[in-house]
Design brief:
InterPro entries: PLipase_C/P1_nuclease_dom_sf, S1/P1nuclease. Belongs to the nuclease type I family. By secondary structure, the protein is mainly alpha-helical. Helices cover 49% and strands 3% of the residues. A hairpin with a 2-residue loop joins β1 and β2.
């Protein structure tokens, strides 16, 4: 049996009531990315709620984005779409992609503000959801699982929507979302 290499990633420290509460023994703890929380929760969710197939899960996500619980959120998902412009410049994703594709290698690159905004959105769930696992129960069942699934669905829908907008602009010249 071939062992997979472990990838070490820093875990953030959560702030609550002005006091640092650490969910690990050191400021930076590591874990293996193939542990159950990385794939097991999504796999169990797809099996339990989406017929066990990626195609059904994707179709269900598209339905939620177009007509379901995510529909009212989608306009804010593209409010920050540039990977090279500061957040303060409010532009359309069409403009961002056009500028990105026409930029020359010698052009100066401005701060990568939107990727930082996107990372902050995801990191907002660290203390409230990700690091709330304290009971020792199976990650793929119970309270932790039930609280994590809506966050996972939201994050997959949001990032899929952003990727779709970028691809639509690249291939069709407009987001068409």
């Amino acid at each position: 049996m071939t062992s997979r290499p472990s990838v070490q990633v820093p875990r953030p420290i959560c702030m609550r009531h002005g006091v640092r509460q650490m969910f690990s023994k050191a400021l930076v703890d590591t874990y293996i990315l193939d542990n159950p929380s990385d794939t097991g929760i999504l796999t169990a969710h797809v099996k339990a709620s989406h017929g066990g197939t990626a195609q059904t899960f994707a179709a269900d996500m598209v339905k939620e984005i177009k007509t379901g619980s995510f529909k009212s959120l989608t306009s804010s998902w593209l409010s920050c779409s540039s990977t090279t412009q500061p957040v303060a410049s409010k532009r359309s994703i069409d403009d961002d992609v056009t500028d990105f594709l026409s930029a020359r290698a010698t052009d100066a690159i401005t701060p990568l503000a939107c990727p930082l905004v996107w990372a902050s959105e995801s990191n907002a769930f660290d203390c409230s959801t990700v690091f709330s696992f304290t009971t020792g129960e199976d990650l793929c069942t119970g309270t932790y699982f039930n609280n994590a699934v809506p966050v996972i669905d939201l994050q997959i829908a949001k990032q899929g929507f952003r990727l779709a907008a970028w691809l639509n602009v690249l291939f069709d010249g407009a987001t068409e979302l």
